[in-house]
Design brief:
mainly alpha; 13 helices
Length: about 300
Amino acid sequence: MKNYENETKAGMIYGLSAFILWGLFPIYFKQLYELGFAEIVAHRIIWSVLFLYILLKFSKKLSDAKQFFTNKKTAFLLFTSGVLIALNWSIYIYAVSIDKIVDASLGYFINPLITMLLGVVVLKEKISNTGKFAIFIVFIAISIQIYDVGGLPFISVILPLSFAIYSLVRKRIKIPSLEGLFVETTMVMPIAIAALFFIAKSGQNHFDFSWFGLFITLCGPLTVIPLLLFNSAALRINLSTIGYMQYISPSLQLLIAVFVYNEPINTAKISSFVLIWIALGVVSIDGIYKKKKQI
């Protein structure tokens, strides 16, 4: 019993650490304002691959990861997921660079419900009436954003959509997350190297062997460490608990956007957030009720 409690406590610490780190990401990426978002993403991919290589080598799992390169179907799916996660990173860093952290935060709040919708449309999963109602509320929230900005809220929609499709692709591949992340980022690394080559050729390269260069290399560990913490949490605590914890990140990002970087937040945006929170609340309460009913 005591061991179970210790494992649960450790899981909570790992989970909170992961989501707090993800929530603080805007502060880190803001420090790289000199770099364009394409340069940041390229470095994030390259240093992630090197950091993952060291971890896999140290944990003696490198040979397990290498085998996924030889299966054509798996390799193609992992290349697809690599492109999708690189797109997701690009949109997020672009949002931070143009002071649209509020829009990115809204996107991450929408993310679980977009994933739910894709599960229904693509995987033909059944959804409760509560879930349908929650998705309907999200569409109202997005409609408010469209009316407010006079068009589709690009960041708030494409950010969760790209990650939801990424999750869908990864769901079809039976591969551990660490090995999967290594393979998918390795497969898109040539694109990242080519991007850095063209950036350097145009005279816009910012990487050098200095403290700032070292700060850029942190893109790798900062990408991988929260994921490792998340996976450690998932092994120790219920997924429903993790589901509630995931809203820590966009909540922190929203607070940072408004109170640290003074991003404007008008009535339309506030209305959208309130509607999203209502939708999430409805789904959460429904989940708790069903869980208690099963006991």
